[in-house]
Every structure is written in structure tokens, then in C-alpha cells.
Amino acid sequence: MSIFSELESEVRSYSRNWPVVFDRAQGSWMYDEDGKAYLDFFAGAGALNYGHNNPQLKKALIDYLSEDRVVHSLDMFTTARRDFLETLQSHILEPRELDYKVIFPGPGGTNAVEAALKLARKVTGRESVINFTNAFHGMTLGALSVTGNSMKRGGAGIPLVHATPMPYDDYFAGEYPDFLYFERLLNDLGSGLNEPAAVIVEAVQGEGGINAARADWLRGLAKLCKEHGILLILDDIQMGCGRTGDFFSFEEAGIVPDIVCLSKSISGYGLPMALTLVRKELDIWEPGEHNGTFRGISPAFVTAAEAMRIYWSDDALAQSTKAKGELVGSRFTALVNAYPEAKLTAKGRGLARGLQFASGDLAGKVCAEAFSRGMLMETSGPDGEVMKILPALTITTAELEQGLAIIDESVAAVLSSH
Fold it and tell me: Structure pTM?
């Protein structure tokens, strides 16, 4: 493996915790070059909601490529682009009565966030954006400015300005009313808070520690934004495309954000793709005012459209995800009860779940134990104190049970030695 340390930047991270060379992957399994199998509870950080090399999506992709169809097209019209837009409209937007226009901002989630922030400022003529504690929105400068993690922010090398953090739901453990500080600053002419263009929020904070906002809190935030003429940006990059059960993570709260950011699993196959959905009246771009070379990747359009047809023609996947999530939640609660002295906390919604430990050291050791038993999962939270799982939504119940058994064993092994 010397080529990786000799030639690749020190910025690599996941490979440090999983020091093997992977070669194949299918469904919920990855295989290293020696053929050892690993049960994947990471799923490309949420980019593989339908599993590795999903056979139905793979067939659609291979058929498209074998016919010499258009691969790269910027924003030119193509049959693949049309099919994707028509399927998005018929399978996702219209059933939810969402009247959005679609921006293709570039291939990554951070591109979707940058487009949202830029458009919000253009629409409102304001500069300031409200973000939340423990938020993560991407690694480019605009997205970093609304991200909470100090290590990631520190990599910017310049001051990150025009953003003001507010407490996320339960940040004060219920000691104060929702939005007490935020609302007071908005209404106080002496607060010094610049009038915000937008608020950007995750319904469930993935990298921040699997912090799931209450539906009431999200409704209160949407109401506050509307009262003050502030645009609401919902970052659904990791938690969208069914991760919490519903296609959008905000559906449970019954709110309609002004702007929605999607990426990761929107292509369905792990191909680079991102969308910024905006209310039609907000689409005030001039032609070419926001663009990018890789905003027309047709293979991603093909797999995305096929995934929507297969998995979002009915609510079967949504109901399955919620049921599997409840199974995980009950097992994590059992671990909390089994080790009261460890003061564990079960967290999450759907198949975005976490188990919070007293330290990042303990959570990291549990993940290392799981890896030694043939399973992949990561940590999240400001100190890496949350053991985080994002299994494929298509995982079988048997595979899910197998992974949960490994987690039980790994937690027992670590806590028994402390």
C-alpha cells in the first residue's frame, strides 16, 4: 500500500481507519483485494442509499453507455436530462405538491450549498446568513462559513464571515424556549445582528453527531423565517433521498423550505450529482450567472431517474426504512440501558442512527473493534464522540441484524476494558 502514503496527500481520512485496499462491492458488502468481506454501515457517507452496484441501476447505466449516448453536456438539452427532470417532477415533486425549479450547480453537495447561499443573497440583497451549532454544509469557503466544526473551519485560511451561528434544537438540553436568543436578536434594534438573507439548517445533523431536530422545532423555525422575510434553506444532502424514511427529511415536519440542497444519493449509484431546488419566484439568475463544467453528467441522470422509478413509485421503501430504523433505535436503546455507567445516548431518525459515548476515544475504539470483526462504520460529532451508522436503505433484515450483533460485541469489548 506504499503508493498511497508516498503519493497521496495527508488529507485522506477514511483510509486511516480502514487500512485495507478495497476491490469489489455489491449491495451492503465491500471486499478487499484478498477477498475478505466487510458489512458496510457507512454507504459512502450516505451516497449509496440503494447499495453498491445496485443491479437494476447498473443495467440502466451500462445500457446507456454501450449505446454511445451523451456523457458530458454542461447544460445542453439531452434525452437523459429530460428523462431525469420528468421523473423528478412526476415521482418526487408533484406527489408532495412542491413547486420547485431545479438548479444543477456542480457535482458535489458543497456546490449545491454555494448556489443556495449565492441565490439567497441575490434575491434578498442581504449578506448575512444564520447557521446552527454543530452544522456541516461542505468544504468550500461559503459552505465552511456556515459550518460549525472548528477543525474544518480552520482549514479555510481566511476569516469566514457573513454568517452567525444560533443554537440548534436541544443545544441547551431544553433549558430555554425554542429560538429565545434568535428571536430576541431579530426583534432588538440594538442587537447588532445584520438582517439575514437566509437560514440554513439540516433536519438531522449527520456530521454534527446525528442530532435530529424535533418536527415542532422545524415548524417553529419555518414560521420565524416567514415572519421576518428570511429564506429557509434546507440542506438535505446527506439526509435526503429516503435516509430518514420520507424522500425529504423535512416532510415529517410538514414544512416547505424556500430552497433545498440535494446530493450524495440523488444519483442513486454513487455518481457525482447535486441539485439546488428553489421556489419558482426565486429563480432570478441571469443566463450563465452560476455555472460549472460538470453540471450535466448524463450517466448520473440515468441512474437517478431509474432509482426514482424503482424506489419512489410507492411508499414501500419509506415504510421499510422507518421500520428498520425503529429496529436499530430499539437495539441502541437496549445498549444504553445495558451500560448505565457509560452514559450512552441513542440518537437519530430512520436509518441515520448514532450512539453517543463519553468521548471520541471510546466511539473510535468501538468503530475499530467493528472493523476488526468485518464491518465499516464511522464516528461523527464535534469530538468524534458519536458512533454513526448509515446502512444502505436496501439492506436486508438479516444483514441489519448481523451488523447490530457486531455493534453489540464491539461495544461490550470496549466498555468492559474501561
Answer: 0.97
